[in-house]
């Protein structure tokens, strides 16, 4: 029977799990209602917040757990149905807000009684949900879905005897708040306490849900609870960044909002009775910040001119289009106005140190008027800093404050060690912290001084399982009787062994002089965190050196010298010809035969050897001068050499690659390489290159054949070159230009002109044009019949314009008056089809409109017969 009940309970939990997700916040409070039979009775109310537009449902029922606050021992689990659900809607946003967002929460209320015996440690009541909303902006990117834990604390009688007789503080601030990105805002997290306990507010870390945030949210797991993973520039004490603060006495959050997004903010209120904190209640919300803007006087809560400048730059952080006027005023500590400006952005350099008041007024005496006051702290020379000692996992790490200030004294320290445990914070000047995980940690120190300056120093440190230890070398060689200094790099206490021939074995740099090969081991101890390494010291009594054989090279070439040696240092002479005179196997460049000497040493032991490098000149090769040829012509190459063998490349366009003077027939510009070989000792060829530039082929054009009438001026036009010559010169104005004019006084059946076209190099080609001269008035000749049968004769009906400057149109119509062909180009004809479809034989009408060479209009019409 018990197994069956448990199975049904688990099934019910699985069915309801999907409902208890994407919660946007939660809080809990309780009222003490009396004692009965030694049990303290409490009426508990929990609230869960959800965005109205999430398309999700609040959990019903919700599962709560009660645990011993001190030991984490499980007391009981409860399934509580939802008492009721309310909806809060901000329906009327301020007229001074541009593009206000929709603010709407569904709130589920859960009321239940808890009867508990008094204990010294007290109790913690817990509800957990599987998922918060996704994409929370102040958490580590890419962390995925993450759960939430909401708690209420009942004090025990161990600290204050009256602790169990407590009604908790109850948050009563207004949650209908519009927050615009990068604008000033305020959000009230105030609470009331029926016991009149003193209340103290602060930001704190939000908790993830059970099972690391992705597990079943009911019943909840036992404490302690881990913090959500805050992203860079955020943390439990700064969930909205460094420009947002909370008033410890009122719970009011004020400052400049960060950029658009959703941010998790958790505020805790401590109940203080007789100077002792008896319980802490928490309110956890995901606050949505949108891209709206508020017409407000928006400034940072303070201006820190505490680094190295006394110049302040002032700009309203609100960029609302509703702002029509801006007034700035700077006031010193005596109330004297130092500076006024009506500019939206302005700057001022303070003449002296001190605390100054910055006042901003917008829209004075208008709608959406607003003002704000901030303080400017002008004390240059304040710089937070710290050093770190000990970086081992699960070993204490000491942080030493190194902050400096020119004015006043450093008086507060807010450390965030970046370990993500929820307890990785300190307010001590030089705290000690033991990291619970390895990896890179972003450690943040926010320091202040007694003059009001505040600044942040961030350093990345690597937490490892053993301290970093680096040796300058792990294998080396010495020669008797030399001594050697070993060198290790690391932080901590060093210990070297064995002690044979060892001096200063407890330092990072001991000295050794063994007479036989010895391996020395070093151990580094950093506060109990250990690492070790070793170095081998090989010992010899002389230097071994064997140089390569003498060699011959081509004059001016580089050669790689090499030796066999156990030396540690080398020196080559003459050093001026050696590219690296201290290398064991250097490269050298020489134009003359040279004897190179190498000295190898191990400490005070040394040896010498020599290498003779003989140089031989490269074979002489001369490919001749570069030349230029016309397209599709030849060039004679003119090589010369004293070598016994030579060759030209590339071979494809050469008559014979083994002749000194081959014929080249390149189709395009080509570089020919002439290589010469001899047997005087240089194994490489001498070579030279000649370039044969091939000019492009000439593309001559004399124009299209044409016809004119007697006394009509004809404009000829040739192209394709740089110079021209027309033959014959009959009727031409100038036969030596590209565009002569021609005039004819008698008719002709056709004059054929040849034009010679020359390029820059004098290469020539020719083209032809035929001109017919008619003894008639300007006319467009149209045949009276044509036979488009594809035999190549009379297949096109074409207009032939004579004495016509321009054809406006030539049109053909069928017998139904349908336009079937049109052109404005002389001699462009109709092939007897429409859209590729053959037209029938018969009579067709044509019409032409043109302008003759004298500028007079010409209109003509007629008929033609299509013969099939």
Automatic annotation (TrEMBL):
Alphabetic keyword roster: Signal
InterPro entries, A to Z: Ig-like_fold, PKD/Chitinase_dom, PKD_dom, PKD_dom_sf, T9SS_type_B
Signal peptide segment: 1-20
Highest rank taxon of the organism: Bacteria
Pfam families hit by this protein: CHU_C (PF13585), PKD_4 (PF18911)
Name listed for the protein in its UniProt record: PKD domain-containing protein
PROSITE patterns the record matches: PKD (PS50093)
Residue intervals of the PKD domain: 412-463
């Amino acid at each position: 029977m018990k197994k069956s009940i448990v199975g049904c309970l688990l099934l019910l939990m699985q069915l309801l799990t999907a409902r208890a997700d994407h919660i946007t916040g939660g809080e809990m409070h309780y009222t003490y209602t009396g004692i009965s039979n030694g049990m303290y009775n409490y009426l508990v109310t929990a609230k869960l917040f959800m965005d109205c537009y999430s398309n999700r449902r609040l959990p019903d029922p919700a599962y709560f757990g009660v645990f011993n606050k001190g030991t984490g021992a499980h007391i009981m689990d409860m399934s509580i149905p939802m008492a009721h659900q309310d909806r809060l809607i901000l329906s009327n946003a301020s007229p001074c807000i541009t593009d206000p967002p929709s603010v709407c929460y569904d709130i589920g209320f859960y009321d239940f009684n808890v009867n508990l015996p008094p204990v010294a440690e007290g109790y913690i009541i817990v509800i957990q949900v599987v998922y918060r909303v996704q994409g929370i902006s102040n958490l580590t990117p890419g962390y995925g879905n993450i759960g939430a834990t909401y708690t209420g604390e009942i004090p025990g009688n161990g600290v204050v005897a009256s602790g169990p007789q407590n009604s908790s503080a109850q948050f009563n601030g207004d949650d209908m708040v519009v927050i615009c990105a990068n604008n000033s805002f305020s959000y009230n997290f105030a609470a009331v306490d029926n016991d009149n306990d003193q209340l103290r507010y602060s930001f704190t870390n939000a908790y993830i849900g059970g099972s690391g945030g992705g597990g079943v949210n009911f019943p909840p797991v036992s404490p302690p609870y881990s913090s959500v993973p805050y992203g860079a520039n955020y943390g439990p004490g700064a969930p909205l960044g460094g420009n947002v603060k909370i008033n410890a006495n009122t719970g009011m959050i004020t400052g400049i909002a960060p950029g658009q997004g959703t941010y998790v903010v958790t505020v805790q209120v401590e109940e203080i009775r007789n100077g002792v904190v008896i319980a802490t209640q928490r309110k956890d919300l995901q606050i949505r910040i949108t891209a709206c803007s508020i017409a407000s006087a928006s400034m940072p809560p303070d201006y820190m001119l505490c680094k190295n400048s006394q110049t302040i730059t002032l700009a309203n952080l609100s960029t609302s289009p509703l702002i029509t006027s801006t007034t700035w005023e700077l006031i010193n500590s005596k109330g004297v106005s130092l500076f006024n400006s009506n500019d939206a952005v302005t700057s001022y350099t303070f003449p002296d140190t001190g605390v100054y008041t910055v006042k901003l007024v917008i829209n004075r005496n208008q709608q959406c008027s607003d003002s704000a006051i901030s303080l400017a702290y002008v004390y240059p020379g304040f710089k937070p800093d710290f050093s770190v000692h000990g970086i081992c996992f699960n070993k204490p790490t000491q942080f030493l404050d190194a902050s400096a200030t020119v004015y006043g004294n450093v008086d507060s320290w807010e450390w965030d060690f970046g370990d993500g445990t929820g307890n990785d914070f300190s307010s001590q000047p030089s705290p000690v912290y033991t990291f619970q995980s390895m990896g890179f940690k972003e450690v943040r120190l926010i320091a202040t001084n007694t003059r009001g300056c505040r600044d942040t120093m961030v350093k990345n440190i690597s937490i490892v399982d053993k301290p970093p230890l680096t040796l300058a070398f792990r294998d080396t060689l010495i020669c008797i009787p030399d001594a050697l200094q070993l060198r290790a790099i690391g932080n901590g206490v060093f210990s070297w062994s064995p002690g044979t021939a060892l001096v200063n074995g407890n330092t990072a740099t001991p000295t050794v002089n063994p007479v036989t090969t010895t391996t020395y081991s070093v151990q580094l101890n950093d506060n109990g965190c250990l690492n070790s390494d070793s170095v081998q010291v090989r010992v010899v009594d002389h230097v071994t050196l064997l140089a390569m054989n003498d060699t011959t090279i081509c004059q001016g070439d580089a050669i790689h010298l090499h030796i066999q040696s156990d030396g540690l240092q080398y020196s080559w002479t003459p050093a001026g010809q050696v590219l690296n005179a201290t290398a064991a196997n250097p490269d050298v460049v020489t134009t003359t035969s040279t004897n190179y000497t190498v000295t190898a040493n191990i400490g005070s032991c040394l040896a010498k050897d020599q290498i003779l490098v003989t140089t031989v000149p490269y074979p002489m090769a001369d490919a001749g001068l570069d030349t230029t040829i016309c397209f599709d012509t030849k060039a004679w190459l003119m090589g010369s050499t004293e070598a016994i063998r030579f060759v030209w490349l590339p071979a494809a366009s050469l008559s014979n690659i083994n002749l000194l003077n081959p014929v080249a027939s390149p189709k395009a510009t080509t570089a020919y390489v002439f290589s010469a070989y001899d047997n005087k000792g240089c194994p490489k060829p001498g070579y030279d290159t000649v370039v044969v530039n091939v000019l492009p082929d000439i593309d001559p054009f004399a124009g299209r054949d044409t016809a004119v009438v007697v006394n009509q001026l004809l404009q000829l036009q040739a192209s394709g070159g740089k110079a021209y010559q027309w033959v014959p010169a009959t009727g031409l104005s100038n036969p030596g230009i590209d565009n002569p004019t021609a005039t004819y006084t008698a008719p002709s059946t056709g004059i054929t002109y040849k034009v010679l076209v020359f390029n820059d190099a004098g290469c020539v080609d020719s083209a032809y044009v035929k001109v017919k001269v008619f003894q008639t008035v300007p006319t467009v000749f149209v045949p009276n019949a044509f036979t488009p049968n594809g035999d190549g004769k009379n297949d096109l009906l074409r207009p032939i314009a004579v004495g016509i400057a321009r054809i406006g149109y030539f049109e053909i119509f069928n017998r139904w008056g349908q336009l079937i062909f049109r052109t404005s180009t002389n001699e462009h004809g109709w092939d007897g089809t429409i859209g590729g479809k053959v037209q029938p034989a018969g009579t067709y009408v044509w019409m032409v409109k043109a302008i003759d060479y004298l500028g007079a209009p010409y209109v003509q019409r007629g008929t033609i017969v299509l013969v099939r």
